[in-house]
Amino acid sequence: MSDLPVSDPARSDRLDGWKAIAAHLGRSVRTVQRWELTENLPVHRHPHQKLSSAWAYRDELDGWMARRSDLGDLATEPVAPQGPSEMPPPPVMTSEGLPLSVAPPRGARRWVTTLGLSMALVTSLLLGQQHDFRARAAAPATWDGRDTPDPLAREAFSTGRTAYTDRRYAEAREATERAIARDATYASAWILLAKIHGRLASAGLHRSEAQEPAVAAAARALALAPSSAEAHVAQALAERARRDVTAWRGHARQAIEIDPTSAEAHAVLADSYSGQLGFACGRDRNPELAESHYQTALELDPHLNTARVNRAQNLAYLGRYEACAAILTPFIEATGDVNALATRARCSLMGNDLDAAGRDIDRLTGAPGAAPSAVLLDRGWLRMKQGKLASGARDLESAADLQRSFPMELNVAQAYADSGEPSRAAAHLERAFAIDPSCARTVAAAPSFRVVRRAPEVSAALASYGVR
Length: 468
Description:
By secondary structure, the protein is mostly helical. It is built from 24 helices and 5 strands.
């Protein structure tokens, strides 16, 4: 449930226009435009009737520069005088039909010299073979042509990428599909579409509708950009949706090997080891290792909010309920994220801070975007712990009926067990096992089910699935 969409966070540290972005980074307008196309510089766009205006957040730019400067390719970047703000030239298409980004025409010879390219290439530049050389030189060796010559496709992709970052997945999907409709070989758009479908499927929402599209889009992305770290992240998310833990971890690790600064790769790998009840049920968990990768992901990208919520759930599994709530509090105060609010309420419930849980549940009730099943789960859990057994049980049963998935069944069972109702917990564990038999292994190992495992009904249910 941690991949549910949220509303836009309120931000004020914004730079408007290419000139302001270039001045902040101390580079020319053409250089930062090229970085946006070939190095994923975090620039956002406002689409207009014909063109789009660019803007960026200072802290995102500073974080990107800090990460990329470690690779040694930014410190030697030539600083050219700023000219008029303009879009870079369209990329050249390779013989295989994949686009390659074009280097800036101004200062081409100095850029070649700075990068230490061979004199043969410099000679070809001087002999008028500039066009093909710049196309090859601008494309990093580990990237397979992710861009498009279509400016409207780029605009749609930029809109989709911003919506994805903010977890507005329906909007992100619509914009990204619009980009692909304009250019079917747009690798970055296929990567983004695969991520969107992968997160929708893994969230337990529309799994049957999103799982196969996630797999298909990820395969297309890898075919277009096999050396891209982000393509492997997309494939890892697709494998997560299919609950293939081995492939999930394999692609996440491959993404990290290609680009150790990929925050999302660290976060997706952390998900595979997380103690939380979602994703694949019977996987082997290592919550301490997950915590390490979550920390790395958030150090690399403090705005990777899905990783923040997932990390909080992992901390709850470790019994660190106060830390779970604390890591979410600044995020909730800044954004009002309803998914984070529901998670913090659950952490407070497990930590027996019923007053804090009640405040969060009051805020959740009726909040725009709050999943009804999450509200019912948290409210029912609170009422059970307050001794309001009839109304609490009604809420918990309604939550399970609204979202028929193994994570919800396990959460409802956990709420009943935590409230001293092992028989009711056992009934929902049985329902979880029926959906995914590997959940029996999860219940046998999870600290949160220690008490309920003593109940005869639960012991019998575990034994029937070959687990003791």
